[in-house]
Amino acid sequence: GATVMLPYPDWVLAIAGLIVLCGVAPIPIVFLLRRFQCLKLDVDIHQGSIRRIETTVSTKGMVADEE
């Protein structure tokens, strides 16, 4: 059988464009939100850090290194 090249249907190209737009759109959106100071730039990383309370003998040395 011979292969016949057919163009993609319009709805497939629309879905592909929508997927690309959804993947790229957060970059300029976050840039604009930070540019006009709608988002805070100085986020405290340690504020949301999780502390391990209970440790076993095997993990105590590893946890002590991080603290």
Q: Can you put this structure into words, describing what you see?
A:
This protein has 67 residues and is mainly α. The protein has a domain at 1-41. Helices cover 52% and strands 0% of the residues. The chain is flat, with a radius of gyration of 25 Å. It comes from Bracon brevicornis. The chain crosses the membrane at residues 12-33.
Write a compact overview of the structure shown.
This protein has 67 residues and is an all-alpha fold.
Determine the N-to-C terminus distance: 68 Å
Task: Indicate the radius of gyration in whole angstroms.
Answer: 25 Å
Structural class: mainly alpha
Instruction: Write down the overall geometry.
Output: flat
Report the sheet with the most strands, covering strand number, pairing sense and barrel closure.
none
Residue stretches low in confidence (pLDDT < 50, at least 5 long) are: none
Mean pLDDT: 80
Keywords summarizing the entry:
transmembrane, 3 helices, transmembrane helix, Cation-transporting P-type ATPase C-terminal domain-containing protein, 67 residues, single chain
